[in-house]
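General statements about sequence and structure are easier to judge against a single worked case. When preparing material for the folding task, we compiled for one chain both its residues and its backbone structure tokens. The amino acid sequence and the backbone structure tokens for this protein are reproduced below:
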Amino acid sequence: MGYPRTIRNYNSFIDGISYFGRCIEAKLPALKLLTGSHRGAGMDAPIDIDLGMEGMMSELTFAEWAPELITMIGTRTRLVLRPGEMGEQDFSAVGFAATLAGRVTVVDPGNLKGGEEAPLKLTQSVDYYRLQREGEELFEIEVENGKRVIDGVDQLADLRRAMGA
């Protein structure tokens, strides 16, 4: 029987600065297509048509209220999350690198309550997202340049050419 390799831990970097031990939770953007329903003459059921991608968001939660994090609201920043994957058969690990860029749209200090932690949450509206596994690119999405490369195939290249971009 084979056991799955699982993400065991991660580190986070904002503009190249490590937040090892200070970032307590991170959420990578979901990749989700915006689709339209089409049911033409003779079709027995509708099909989904690719109309582009939905907006992407990331979230980071920190154990501290660092001034440089609080003042990021409205700024464009580069974020790198580096999860590590490990199996059960040995101690070998595989690294992922998720590189994100976009504007910090929310700085949320959460609720204050005596005797409990008060984490700080940052939300980023993502317009660039690349995921690599051990240096091999799985996908790269550049919203501003109309680029969506999945497994080495730029799904929008011919559309950009057709539009003269």
Notes: The first strand starts at residue 6 and ends at 14.
